[in-house]
Write a sequence for this structure.
């Protein structure tokens, strides 16, 4: 969960559809993915057969899930999504392939593409994903990079849609570090016609490149240093950890900078009465969010976590149909 500036992804040299960031989907396609995820979700339909149907686009196929970074929600949600679509997930650790040490990212993608219908990769450096996608014969899905977390954004949109029936014209207030989660959510929100507000300390804000990228999908994000301004009348209040994996050296600096950006009950009171609280997890209660908010009645963190599986299933179904 890094706050480095986002660059526009390099386009693949083949016609295979990939998902490195949410805006690799058009607004129409994003709606299709969410519709597929919602149809398969127990929130909207009852019974396993009704949820999953009889379509198994990954029947007798494998999906490689490559993890440079460890994960709980991503691994379990992706594995179960693949299984529910009839496929076989194969998790691969960084040590097994040694990206750009034992073998280049490009050759790893080419190799995995010999066996699998899709490749998911959770990496430190976003350019690794771009290089894999440029040569991969099968779809590459970004399971998290330093620049983007599109799978989380899809799950977040699904959660908001379930709560408010539609995403358009809803106000999403993000309080904290403008990291990969924030950027992907901002892009996804603007693609769906939502309003996105960002509250972060002076010196911590979206870069000009980020703002231009977000604005390509709709309206630019509102930016402020005052969490109260961002949260006022919001339907959704969202936060994430202040110090991301790999940024531990910045801990003391960030703790001081973000000290006034904790999501408390007092701050939540500035939002709409029916507002919900969201966090991608893992969380640090007492830092970016108060425990009574994180585990309180407005929190939807477990619904978000479950929706990671439904969103992944909807996305994989879409990508298989697009080939």
């Amino acid at each position: 969960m890094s706050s480095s500036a986002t660059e526009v992804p390099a386009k693949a040299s083949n016609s295979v559809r990939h998902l490195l960031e949410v805006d690799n989907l058009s607004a129409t396609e994003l709606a299709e993915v969410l519709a597929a995820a919602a149809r398969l979700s127990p929130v909207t339909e009852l019974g396993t057969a009704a949820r999953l149907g009889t379509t198994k686009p990954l029947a007798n196929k494998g999906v490689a899930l490559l993890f440079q970074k460890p994960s709980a929600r991503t691994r379990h949600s992706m594995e179960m999504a693949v299984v529910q679509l009839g496929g076989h997930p194969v998790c691969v650790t960084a040590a097994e392939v040694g990206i750009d040490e034992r073998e280049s990212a490009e050759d790893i993608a080419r190799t995995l593409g010999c066996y699998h219908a899709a490749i998911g990769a959770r990496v430190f450096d976003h350019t690794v994903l771009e290089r894999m996608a440029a040569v991969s014969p099968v779809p590459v899905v970004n399971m998290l990079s330093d620049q983007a977390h599109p799978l989380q954004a899809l799950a977040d949109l699904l959660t908001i849609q379930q709560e408010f029936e539609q995403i358009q014209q809803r106000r999403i207030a993000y309080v904290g570090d403008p990291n990969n989660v924030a950027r992907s959510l901002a892009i996804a929100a603007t693609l769906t016609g939502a309003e996105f507000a960002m509250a972060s300390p002076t010196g911590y804000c979206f870069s000009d490149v980020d703002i231009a990228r977000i604005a390509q999908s709709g309206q630019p994000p509102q930016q402020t240093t005052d969490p109260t301004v961002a949260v006022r009348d919001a339907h959704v209040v969202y936060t994430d950890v202040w110090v991301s994996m790999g940024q531990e050296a910045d801990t003391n600096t960030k703790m001081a900078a973000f000290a006034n950006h904790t999501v408390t009950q007092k701050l939540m009171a500035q939002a709409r009465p029916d507002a919900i609280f969201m966090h991608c997890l893992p969380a640090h209660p007492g830092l970016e969010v108060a425990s009574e908010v994180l585990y309180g009645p407005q929190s939807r963190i477990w619904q978000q976590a479950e929706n990671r599986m439904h969103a992944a299933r909807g996305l994989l179904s879409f990508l298989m149909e697009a080939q």
User: Anything to note?
Assistant: Residues 39 and 51 are 7 Å apart (CA to CA). The radius of gyration is 19 Å.
